[in-house]
Design a protein that fits this description.
The chain has two domains: 3-146 and 303-369, Periplasmic binding protein-like II (D-Maltodextrin-Binding Protein, domain 2); 149-300 and 383-416, 3-Layer(aba) Sandwich (D-Maltodextrin-Binding Protein, domain 2), CATH 3.40.190. It has 16 helices and twelve strands. It has helices at 45-61, 74-87, 100-104, 128-132, 156-161, 170-180, 192-207, 222-237, 249-254, 267-276, 315-327, 329-335, 345-353, 360-369, 384-398, 404-416, and strands at residues 35-42, 65-72, 93-96, 135-136, 139-140, 142-144, 147-155, 259-263, 281-284, 299-302, 305-308, 375-376. The strands form three sheets. It has a five-stranded mixed sheet with strand order 2-1-3-11-6. Strands 7, 8, 9, 10 and 12 form a five-stranded mixed sheet that branches. A two-stranded antiparallel ribbon has the order 4-5. A hairpin with a 2-residue loop joins β4 (135-136) and β5 (139-140). α8 (222-237) packs across α16 and α12 packs across α13 (345-353). The longest helix has 17 residues, at 45-61.
Length: 418
């Protein structure tokens, strides 16, 4: 499915924040009674700051509502959310990961049905394709903010130093490693999930297989997993990238890691400091055997999504806040493209009018949006237990603790036992 379809058709009327019957109007009289609702999200300091600023603006425009904010880095947020979802104490409005839909709402009843809130939540700014990512069993559980994909980022300044062009093929990266390794420089790097998805792309291109079938179920063979493990092992042994355990943002900032595989939504988080240090960072084409095949074997998903608790006691107020976060000009300007190009047509048009669609994050979004080969990412690809097992299996091969065939068989068992 071509990702550009997700952005829909933009019209002049897209700047309307709500249907006529539910536009927010300033309340001129002082409010002595107000409803308290809770909003939760994850992110770095920059994301926290602009979200808090947006909440304060929302409260100014809606003095009958007070918003309690709950936020943290991803790992803490994920762990706390698991407890809250199990105990029914989650926030009224919450940022969720795409994979949580299948984890917490397999039958579509784990989150509030947002289609019932359209008196306060304008969904006309989203295409049907975009909203389909939040549908479970015909129920609209969540709305995506932007689209996301693992992307290859290259420190062009370092590559230029070695007389190398931005890599487009697998061979380009191995050749870059040969040129850089004497200086202890790696042409690429990745955390565990990114390395896993990168190796899946290589396997699919090599074997003509698909990690998931049309129902989102695991579909690799043991032989496919051998290819996947072997590729990661070769990346490490040939000094294309360090083992994921040794990934360091400080090494990106210094240029020791001359590239990285990371999400579109992480562009600023990973590379802002490197750019401040004078390095030119570029969003490269998706690695393939030839430039004509770029994007084959790669996947896309919503960057993040917003959902409303199925147990909220204040659905109207939650919907008004959610509408503000998705469609308001205030939030659009504060957020910019930090999470990718907004899927809301009103937010995107406003950023276009203000010439705010620029920078590395925007460049990475365009690489994703303009590639017609990316496929829908299903949650099994991001399963943490599977990724941990993959890295463990590969490390056993790297350190001579087992052979490739046995490692693949063990990994296959872990995946099929999920």
């Amino acid at each position: 499915m071509k990702l550009s379809r997700l952005l829909g058709t933009f019209t002049a009327s897209a700047l309307l924040l709500m249907p006529v019957g539910c536009r927010q109007k300033p309340v001129v009289r002082p409010q002595t009674h107000f409803t308290v609702i809770k909003l939760s999200w994850w992110g770095n300091d920059s994301r926290n700051e602009y979200t808090i600023d947006a909440v304060r603006k929302f409260e100014e425009l809606n003095p009958d509502i007070k918003v309690k904010c709950s936020y943290s880095e991803w790992s803490g947020y994920e762990a706390r959310s698991q407890v809250q979802m199990a105990s029914g104490t989650e926030a009224d409005v919450m940022q969720i990961n795409f994979s949580w839909l299948s984890q917490y709402s397999p039958d579509g009843t784990g989150y509030y049905d947002l289609s019932k809130l359209t008196d306060y939540l304008d969904l006309s700014t989203f295409s049907e394709d975009a909203l389909s990512y939040g549908m479970v069993n015909g129920i609209l559980n969540a709305v995506p903010i932007a689209m996301n994909a693992e992307t290859v980022y290259i420190n062009k300044t370092v590559y230029d130093k070695y007389g190398l062009s931005i890599p487009q093929t697998w061979d380009d990266l191995f050749a870059a490693a040969d040129a850089m390794k004497a200086d202890g420089v790696y042409p690429l790097s990745a955390l565990a999930k990114s390395a896993w998805i990168y190796a899946i792309a290589y396997t699919e291109q090599t074997n003509g297989s698909s990690f998931t079938n049309e129902n989102g179920e695991f579909d690799f063979s043991e032989e496919d997993l051998e290819t996947t493990i072997d590729f990661y092992v070769r990346l490490v042994q040939n000094k294309v990238m360090p083992q994921v355990e040794y990934f360091s943002k400080n090494d990106i900032n210094s240029g020791k890691l001359a590239g990285s595989v990371a999400w579109v939504s992480d562009a600023q988080n990973y590379f802002r400091k490197a750019e401040e240090n004078g390095f030119e960072i570029a969003a490269a084409p998706y690695t393939a055997f030839s430039p004509a095949e770029t994007g084959s074997g790669w996947y896309a998903k919503p960057a993040t999504m917003y959902a409303v608790s199925k147990d909220t006691e204040h659905p109207e107020e939650a919907a008004r806040l959610l509408n503000f976060l998705l469609n308001s000009p205030e939030m659009a300007v504060l957020q910019g493209v930090e999470k990718g190009i907004p899927l809301s047509s009103s937010a995107r048009e406003l950023l276009e009018d203000k010439d705010m669609l620029s920078g590395l994050q925007y460049d990475a979004s365009l690489v994703m949006e303009n590639n017609g080969r990316l496929r829908k990412m299903y949650p099994v690809i991001e399963n943490t237990d599977i990724i941990d097992a993959f890295i463990d299996s590969a490390n056993k091969v790297i350190f001579g603790k087992t052979d490739l065939h046995t490692a693949a068989a063990e990994l296959y068992y872990v995946i099929t036992s999920q």
